[in-house]
Write a structure and sequence with these properties.
By secondary structure, the protein is mainly alpha-helical. Helices cover 55% and strands 9% of the residues. The chain contains 5 helices and 4 strands. It has helices spanning 14-55, 73-85, 95-101, 109-124, 151-162, and strands at residues 10-13, 90-93, 139-142, 148-150. β3 and β4 form a beta hairpin. The radius of gyration is 21 Å and the shape is elongated. The two termini are 26 Å apart.
């Protein structure tokens, strides 16, 4: 256990920290790719519906109402590069740095998780229904609200919990 005077900084093994940040980047990239894939499926679905309205000369909204997911890969790459260039074998971290680099608790984390979850639910939908992707899902489990979701959505939600 650290004493009170050492709580403002921590000495960590560089190789272990580097491995951890790389692993966190891999987890992030899987979720980011899923978020982007979901975005494109939702965008295609919304634009298809808009085109149907245009063909029938009904009023449309010009916005699809969703934003492209923000990419935070460079945050990880910067830390990785700094560690790779460091000659120190022991790295000093503040609690805030430890929280980001080791615990994956970045300032943008909650927004990223929320966006990815919303996009996944918007695309995959609930079990047995046709979501924005147009594919009927098979039961994968239940989300945090107790709703039955397809396997793709369930797996993504589980990865978000581990992020």
């Amino acid at each position: 256990m650290m004493n009170e005077s050492s709580m403002d900084r921590m000495l960590v093994d560089k190789s272990k920290l580097l491995e951890t940040v790389k692993t966190n980047l891999e987890k992030y990239n899987v979720l980011y790719k899923a978020s982007v894939d979901s975005y494109w499926k939702i965008a295609e679905n919304k634009l298809t519906k808009m085109l149907e309205r245009v063909k029938t000369k009904r009023k449309i909204d010009y916005s699809i109402g969703i934003n492209f997911p923000s990419n935070h890969e460079e945050d990880y790459k910067l830390v990785i590069k700094m560690l790779e260039f460091s000659k120190d074998e022991v790295i000093v971290l503040t609690p805030q740095e430890f929280s980001k680099y080791v615990m994956n608790n970045w300032s943008w984390r909650n927004e990223f998780i929320c966006t990815t979850r919303v996009y996944a639910m918007g695309v995959c939908g609930t079990s047995g229904s046709s979501g924005a992707s147009g594919v009927s899902g098979t039961t994968g489990g239940y989300n945090d609200d107790g709703d039955e979701v397809d396997e793709e959505t369930y797996n993504l939600l589980q990865k978000l919990k581990d992020f």
